[in-house]
From TrEMBL:
Name of this protein: Acyl-CoA dehydrogenase
Keyword Transferase belongs to the record: no
Gene source species: Mycolicibacterium madagascariense
Cofactor: FAD
Gene3D superfamilies assigned: Acyl-CoA dehydrogenase/oxidase, N-terminal domain, Butyryl-CoA Dehydrogenase, subunit A, domain 3
InterPro entries: AcylCo_DH-like_C (IPR036250), AcylCo_DH/oxidase_C (IPR009075), AcylCoA_DH/ox_N (IPR013786), AcylCoA_DH/ox_N_sf (IPR037069), AcylCoA_DH/oxidase_NM_dom_sf (IPR009100)
């Protein structure tokens, strides 16, 4: 376990070094991140979601604009399928650098797929778009040429979202999804939680650094009790977020039912990130509200993350409903 922890620490360090030089997709591919969960036999690293989560967190910390989220969700969908030649070819293609996205809410009937999905991360310009669909009551992953993909403008310029539409398109390929759609939506929610955790931790670190050098009344503002308490509250929120995110990541990596832990991680980590980045903007004073400070980039990313794949309120309602069901209430 200690060796694995050291490996993960090294991975974080490498990720920060790479992202400090920029966040171009080719750099992501060259670092091997697009192939992390692709099996060894297909040219990938054969890693788990634990390692992918580290990259997701560091991308959030850097507020990086890459199609990694959609691509890693597609890898998760493909690795959940039974091995076959066409699936393996897609995994190899993505591992080599093809971008991908996953859209939900489609139906397949008589070999044709129909449906519409909104706010699909990284679908615009993706080389591969996978459709999570239902065919005669069975969940499937499908590929259909001719999809209509329309970009959806959002305030967060670090994200690319799109609407994906299909109206009776011929299905080129489809595979049964044994794990069901829920497992993949849990993975998506936790992926966003990882991103939010990284973004919020970056803003806490930036705030502490700023408070140590910004002076008022001949003292660093970090020496003022109100600032100390605010930073301490931010740290507590993020400590809870990290515990919840780690538990959810481990559950997904182990193939366990992650419904509860994913909802807890997504609801707390994304809400906490908005609070933390908002406080960071306030503690930076007037400069925090300027374009040059860059805090606004993290705030917009945190706010979009809070809404993607279920708001905190939606996840808390699902937790409450599950509790009532499990306890016969």
């Amino acid at each position: 376990m200690s060796d694995l922890r050291e490996f993960h620490d090294d991975m974080r360090g490498v990720a920060r070094d790479v992202l400090a030089k920029g966040a171009h997709w080719q750099q992501v591919v060259d670092a091997g991140w697009s192939a992390l969960e692709v099996p060894d036999a297909l040219g990938g690293a054969g890693a788990s979601f634990v390692e992918t989560a580290i990259v997701l967190e560091e991308l959030g910390r850097a507020a990086a604009a890459t199609p990694y989220l959609g691509t890693t969700l597609a890898v998760g969908a493909l690795t959940a399928l039974a091995p076959n030649d066409s699936r393996d070819a897609l995994l190899q293609r993505i591992g080599a650098g093809a971008t991908a996205a996953v859209a939900t809410g489609f139906t397949v009937s008589a070999g044709r797929v129909s449906g519409c999905a909104e706010f699909v991360p990284d679908a615009g310009g993706a080389d591969v778009v996978l459709l999570l669909a239902e065919a005669a009551g069975t969940p499937v992953v499908a590929v259909a040429p001719g999809l209509l993909v329309a970009a959806q403008p959002v305030l967060d310029e670090t994200r690319s979202l799109a609407t994906v539409m299909a109206d009776g398109l011929d299905v080129a390929q489809s595979w049964p999804l044994p794990s069901g759609v829920a497992a993949l939506t849990h993975r998506a929610a936790v992926s966003i939680a990882c991103d939010s955790l990284g973004a919020a931790e970056a803003m806490l670190a930036a705030t502490v650094d700023y408070a140590s050098v910004r002076r008022q009344f001949d003292r660093p503002i970090g020496s003022f009790q109100a600032v100390k308490h605010a930073c301490a509250d931010m740290l507590v929120q993020l400590s809870v977020s990290r515990q919840l995110v780690v538990a959810a990541v481990e559950a997904i990596a182990a193939g366990e039912d992650a419904g509860v832990v994913a909802a807890m991680a997504k609801s707390h980590a994304t809400a906490a990130a908005v609070d933390v980045v908002g406080k960071a903007m306030q503690l930076h004073g007037g400069i925090g509200y300027t374009w040059e400070s860059g805090v606004h980039v993290y705030l917009k990313r945190a706010m979009l993350n809070r809404a993607l794949y279920g708001s905190p309120a939606q996840h808390r309602r699902s937790l409450a409903a599950r509790y009532r069901r499990d306890h016969g209430m």
